[in-house]
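Bug #77: duplicate submission created two jobs. Keeping one. Sequence:
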Amino acid sequence: MKKTYKCEVDCANCAAKMEDAIKKLDGVKDARVNFMTQKLTLEADEDNYDNILQLAVKACKKVEPDCEIEI
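Kept job's structure:
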């Protein structure tokens, strides 16, 4: 399953770090955090997608605590 979310990120470096952190999660097939469009695209296993999404949000918050992702 692949979905896109609005993601407020402050800089391109933070976006790259968030993307790397999400890609390391089990079940994630691909992830893109785009600083210019302020979007997160997550592709992950469909049967556990909601749990993976919550873990992805937590990973982003570790990189940038004031990051907002609209789910």
